[in-house]
TrEMBL record, chain A:
GO terms for molecular function: mechanosensitive monoatomic ion channel activity. The chain crosses the membrane at residues 268-294, 376-396, 463-485, 505-525, 546-568, 596-621, 642-667, 717-734. Keywords: Membrane, Transmembrane, Transmembrane helix. It holds the Pfam family TMC. This is Transmembrane channel-like protein. It comes from Salvelinus namaycush. It is a multi-pass membrane protein. Belongs to the TMC family. The lineage of its organism: Eukaryota, Metazoa, Chordata, Craniata, Vertebrata. GO terms for cellular component: plasma membrane.
TrEMBL record, chain B:
SUPFAM superfamilies: EF-hand. Keywords: Calcium, Magnesium, Metal-binding, Repeat. Pfam families: EF-hand_7. It comes from Salvelinus namaycush. The keyword Metal-binding applies. Coiled coil: none annotated. The keyword Endoplasmic reticulum does not apply. This is Calcium and integrin-binding protein 1-like. Residues 99-134, 144-179 form the EF-hand domain. GO terms for molecular function: calcium ion binding; magnesium ion binding. PANTHER family: CALCIUM AND INTEGRIN BINDING FAMILY MEMBER 1, CALCIUM AND INTEGRIN BINDING FAMILY MEMBER 2. Transmembrane segments: none annotated.
Length: 790, 187
């Protein structure tokens, strides 16, 4: 009968890997395809009856070749198709006759999971593939003569189909044993282990394979290969005993089992990780201990200073007694260590003959054991790190290979149902918890679309969460900075102030940068992902909330913070004077608030009004607080310098940052489609361009304005020129200032010189007058008074 | 295969080491525990009845304990009693070094409640009931169960025959990296 069944199975056999779990190609083909094929043919009931008669004798599947079985199974299936007249999913229905059920039960796809014969034949195929991979071709004499020469050795014994009988399974088993014999020993062991048969059957197979193999081995192999065979056996035994020894070291086995019994695989992985780290550290300790600490401890260097006594604090600080011991780098000598061979009567007998010695030292030594300490130190550390690196990379690649899966997106439900039970969990309560958890998860996966409705007021109030968090950060972290500054020692108080300002500034700048990124980078680029129709209004509202929260927290801080701090410092710390008003912190808070206002004015045009109200209230509040809670500062405050700094901060990070954000928004971000004055444009800036174009068309007199706009404002060359001219002007001014400084210094020098001249002339005058009237002191004094009068 | 002897022979031990995924220590420990299970019974028995096996702490709370005994049992009476070699088979399939293929094969057989070689709707329903526990409030309603089973079949039944056979099961399993570590029982 003509059936369009796909017999091209050789290609599939070649491709399938040896130990792939999804070994579908070797077992069956797509079922659907065959149903389609069958439905188009006409069947005869006698064929089915004949098949059923044959099958009744044997409930275990007989498989000559998978294709043929497929054909049989599908034939029965197709016949049922005809009977029921159904299209695609009739197999879920259960009204089959007993004959059909029998056919169903002997289908290869169903028997592979159940019957021994199917497993044997599957593993026969696998061993065949393995042999083909390991050797070129199995020897011809192992196959029956009736097999066609071209496919001899590839398992396609199609001509043997006629000899099917009761002993089909036995024949398959013999073939499997034959294949096993021809594999190498390790392959055979691996194959036997991986078979899902019971131990009794596997030992039977092993016995058969080993016996025949041994017979053939002894007859064929010459003696040197026999030796190799024995060596391999011995190596294998030693490998097994080595593995057993490693397993017997079982550190923490009981504890790990208890943990996994109660908590499962997830928590267990933490403890296994601890174990892994322990082994790494043991390895490192052994290496450094053996190669570094031990030789140095045996040959202690001569100490230059006395050893400090042991007191308990060394255990915490690591210094003291330990600082001159083998624990630290400084103890190790930088020369080659020689074995100290002190000549004693007993050791003389043990030493080798002195004639071997090349160099004589103070004592007669034989062969010297020298240990190059610097070299050992360097290589030990290097090699230890290298080996650790190799081990880590190897285990990382192994675990990555185990856990990486390509197609994870669908099939989650089936995966969860089949794989989620953790068989390691033993404790009853844990089992119960897991069952409940699985039930919840399954229910959730089913009803994934159901979103619980939240109270709308609650949703609105939850929008306040972010501003509150940011304000809290802004409030608490500067206090932390002050506390750390108290512990640090600075060269001068002004350094203290600058450090505090810069820390606070960096905090606020980073907060603002993250917020801007969040608003402009994420919300503005994809507003529909959050369900926003009008993102500009949303951002404006956010900024309003931030401003308001900042104000509220400032109020709280002023009322409670400063007030409480004053009480605390006076009552508890017993300080005589009230606390000092922290000028820089408060000014930075004002700058932060102003930055928010500048950022928000594009989205919320009335935000400056809010800021005005806030500043008015803040003024009165802070004034009251300062009067009540603070004292005048002891340190002189360089007001004009700090004012300059604050104005600079207001201009440079604050205003500049806000201007950059606003320009970016106007230049590149797409406005919302459904709200705002720019709703149909691609950028906000386009409105200007459109107006200029309109101007051109409506009013030809003002065409020069349009020309000016397009050629000057939009032209980058103009901006470069303007900036260049501006820079040149600044440069000239600085040069003028420099020149004037030089002139000032020259003039100062000149004045000094003039002063010198004046001093010189006066002394000379004095000297001359004294020479002219030398006679009497009376006359001198009257002369002097006359002189002084004239 | 004398398992009632108080000690395992050396060649038997090495044979078991070769045929299963267990190490020597694990085989000896299994022998000890199996002997304890046998100790109260008649010495001539070679297999332990299912009730005694289920009294092991490792299996006591497992919802699949009866199926595990049935799958690994080679007794002719199909009563779930295990000989020592069946016990070793069990431990080998659930051991650390067993391959994914062995584990998925035995997992399939454990989940196949009616032993017909595939997981049909009835098998899946019993499986889900075992997973979600025996109490009433964790059980799924019939409507939920039906929906769940049809979703599972839609995801994993590749040839659309209404059941999940071994290959399809292994295909689903191979996509989960945690299966190997959760399908473990350690004595």
């Amino acid at each position: 009968m003509a059936h369009n069944v796909n017999f091209d199975l050789t290609a599939q056999h070649m491709e399938a890997g040896l130990e792939s779990p999804a070994d579908e190609e070797g077992v069956h083909d797509s079922f659907n395809q065959l149903i389609e094929d069958q439905r188009q043919e006409a069947f005869e009931l006698q064929e089915l009856q004949r098949d059923l008669d044959e099958e009744e004798r044997d409930s275990v599947a007989y498989l000559s070749s998978p294709g043929r079985e497929m054909w049989r199974g599908s034939q029965g299936r197709g016949e049922e198709e005809e009977e029921e007249g159904r299209q695609l999913d009739p197999l879920i229905e259960e009204r089959w006759s007993s004959a059909t059920l029998k056919v169903l039960s002997s289908m290869p796809s169903r028997t592979i999971g159940r019957s021994r014969g199917a497993i044997i034949s599957q593993y026969y195929n696998k061993t065949m593939k393995l042999r083909r991979r390991r050797q070129s071709r199995p020897s011809i004499k192992d196959f029956s003569r009736s097999a066609r020469p071209s496919i001899r050795g590839y398992g396609m014994e199609s001509d043997c189909m006629e000899t099917e009988g009761v002993d089909e399974e036995g024949r398959k088993r013999d073939q499997l044993v034959n294949n096993l014999q021809n594999l190498s020993l390790s392959d055979r062991v691996r194959m036997l282990r991986a078979m899902p048969l019971s131990v009794a059957e596997k030992s039977e197979l092993r016995r058969l394979a080993g016996r025949k193999g041994q017979r053939s081995n002894h007859s064929q192999i010459p003696c040197c290969s026999q030796l190799k065979y024995h060596i391999i056996i011995a190596l294998r035994q030693s490998w097994y005993s080595c593995l057993s020894f490693l397993h017997s070291l079982q550190l923490w086995q009981v504890a790990l089992k208890r943990v996994s019994g109660r908590f499962g695989t997830g928590v267990l992985s933490y403890f296994l990780f601890v174990k892994t780290l322990l082994f790494f550290n043991i390895f490192l300790f052994l290496v450094t201990g053996l190669f570094l600490a031990l030789p140095q401890a045996v040959h202690p260097p001569t100490l230059t200073q006395g050893h400090e006594a042991f007191s308990g604090l060394e255990l915490l600080t690591g210094g003291g007694y330990f600082s001159d011991s083998v624990m630290y780098y400084g103890y190790y000598s930088n020369s080659t260590l020689y074995k100290d061979c002190r000549v004693t009567s007993s050791s003389m007998d043990q030493q080798p003959s002195p004639s071997v010695s090349r160099r004589t030292m103070e004592t007669d030594c034989g062969v010297k054991l020298s240990y190059n300490m610097p070299l050992a130190y360097f290589f030990t550390i290097g090699v230890a790190f290298f080996i650790t690196c190799i081990i880590l990379v190897y285990s990382m690649s192994k675990s990555f290979g185990q856990s990486f899966r390509i197609d994870k997106s669908h099939g989650i439900l089936a995966m969860k149902v089949f794989c989620s039970w953790d068989f390691k969990v033993i404790k009853k309560t844990s089992v119960k918890l897991r069952s409940e958890n699985i039930c919840t998860q399954l229910r959730d996966l089913q009803y994934r679309s159901r979103i619980p409705t939240k109270d709308p007021l609650l949703k609105e109030a939850s929008l306040l969460a972010l501003p509150v968090v940011v304000s809290l950060i802004n409030l608490l972290l500067p206090g932390l900075f002050n506390a750390t500054a108290w512990m640090e020692e600075y060269d001068s108080p002004s350094v203290n102030t600058y450090v505090a300002i810069s820390r606070n500034l960096m905090l606020k700048v980073s907060v603002l940068v993250v917020l801007c990124f969040h608003w402009l980078g994420r919300i503005a680029s994809d507003p529909h992902s959050i369900g926003l129709q009008c993102w500009e209004s949303f951002v404006g509202q956010e900024l309003y909330r931030f401003l308001l929260m900042d104000f509220i927290f400032t109020i709280l801080d002023t009322c409670f913070g400063e007030f409480l701090w004053r009480l605390f410092s006076q009552r508890v710390l017993k300080r005589k004077r009230k606390p000092v008003f922290d000028i820089s912190r408060n000014v930075l808070e004002l700058i932060y608030g102003q930055t928010l206002a500048w950022l928000g004015v594009l989205f919320t045009p009335l935000l400056p009004a809010v800021q005005i109200i806030k500043l008015l209230l803040l003024f009165y509040m802070k004034q009251t607080s300062v009067m009540m809670n603070c004292q005048s500062p002891r340190k002189p405050y360089r007001a004009s310098q700090m004012s300059t700094i604050f104005i600079t901060l207001l201009c440079c990070p604050s205003f500049l940052g806000a201007a950059v954000c606003v320009s970016y928004t106007m230049w590149s971000i797409r406005p919302s489609e459904s709200c705002g004055p720019f709703r149909s444009l691609s950028t906000m800036f386009q409105s200007g361009k459109l107006w200029v174009k309109e101007l051109e068309t409506h009013n030809p007199n003002l065409a020069w304005l349009a020309w000016a706009h397009s050629y000057i404002v939009e032209n980058p060359l103009f901006l470069f020129l303007a900036a260049g001219i501006f820079l040149i002007v600044i440069y000239f001014n600085t040069q003028v200032v420099d020149g004037q400084r030089k002139i000032i210094s020259l003039l100062q020098e000149q004045i000094e010189n003039e002063g010198e001249d004046k001093k010189f002339l006066i002394t000379r005058l004095q000297a001359i007058h004294q020479q002219k009237r030398p006679l009497s002191p009376r006359r001198l004094t009257s002369q002097a008074s006359q002189d002084s009068n004239s | 295969m004398g398992t009632t002897a108080s000690q395992l022979g050396k060649d038997l031990l090495s044979e078991y080491q070769e045929l299963t995924f267990l190490t020597k220590q694990e085989i000896l420990l299994a022998h000890k525990r199996f002997s304890e299970l046998l100790s109260k019974e008649d010495r001539n028995l070679t297999s332990v009845p299912m009730e005694k096996v289920l009294s092991l702490p490792e299996l006591k709370s497992n919802p699949f304990r009866k199926r595990i005994c049935h799958v690994f049992s080679t007794s002719d009476m199909k009563d779930g009693s295990l000989t020592f070699e069946d016990f070793l088979d069990l431990l080998s399939a659930f051991s650390d070094s067993a391959t994914l293929e062995i584990k998925s094969h035995y997992a399939f057989r454990i989940f196949d409640f009616d032993d017909d070689g595939t997981l049909d709707g009835g098998d899946l329903e019993k499986l889900v009931n075992c997973l979600t526990g025996e109490t009433e409030d964790t059980r799924l309603t019939p409507e939920e169960m039906r929906q769940l089973i049809s979703n599972i079949l839609e995801e994993s039944d590749i040839d659309k025959d209404g059941t999940v056979n071994l290959s399809e099961f292994q295909h689903v399993i191979s996509r989960s990296p945690d299966f190997v570590s959760s399908f473990k029982i350690v004595l």
